Amino acid sequence: MYNTIFIYPNPSNDAVTLQYELPKGEREGEIILYNTQGKEVKRYKVDDTFKDLLLDNTMLPAGVYYYQLQTSKGV
After folding, report:
1. Bridge partners, residue 4, by sequence
2. CA distances for 59 relative to 21, 46, 55, 63, angstroms
3. What distance in Å separates the CA atoms of residue 68 and residue 64, rounded to the nearest whole number?
4. Mean pLDDT along residues 24-48
5. What is the spatial order of strands in the sheet that 4-8 belongs to?
6. CB 3 within 8 A of CB 67
7. Residue 3 pLDDT level (bands cut at 50, 70, 90)
8. Is residue 17 a contact partner of residue 52, using CB atoms and an 8 Å limit?
9. Which residue of 25, 39, 60, 67 is most buried, as measured by CB atoms within 10 A?
10. What is the phi-psi region of residue 73: left when phi exceeds 0, alpha when psi lies from -120 to 50, beta otherwise?
11. Which CA distances in Å does 65 have to 10, 61, 72?
12. What is the pLDDT of residue 1?
C-alpha cells in the first residue's frame, strides 16, 4: 500500500485537515511541508494513534504547498 495523504478543504484560508494512512506495520512517520521552491517549511511527527492532522496555515504566506509522508519504509 502507498503512503497516502488527503487534504481538505482545498483551497483553504485558515486551516486544513490532512488525513494520512501509514503503511501496514508502520507506527510512526513524519509529514513534511514544502513550498514551491522545494524548501522545507514545517515538519510534523505523526503516529498510528490518529489518522489526521489539523494544520493552521494562517502563519503561512498564500501559495501552493506540497506535503510528503515519510516512514522507515519510504516516502
Report:
1. 21
2. 26, 21, 10, 12
3. 14
4. 94
5. 4-8, 15-21, 52-56
6. no
7. low
8. yes
9. 67
10. alpha
11. 11, 10, 23
12. 43
DSSP codes, 17-73: EEEEEPPTT--EEEEEEE-TTS-EEEEEEEETT-SEEEEE-TTSPSS--EEEEEBTT
What is the mean pLDDT of the segment spanning 58-62?
88
25: left (phi over 0), alpha (psi -120 to 50) or beta: left
The angle at the Cα of 32, spanning 26 to 37, to the nearest 5 degrees, equals 145
Instruction: Output the pTM of the full model.
Output: 0.82
CB 33 within 8 A of CB 43: yes
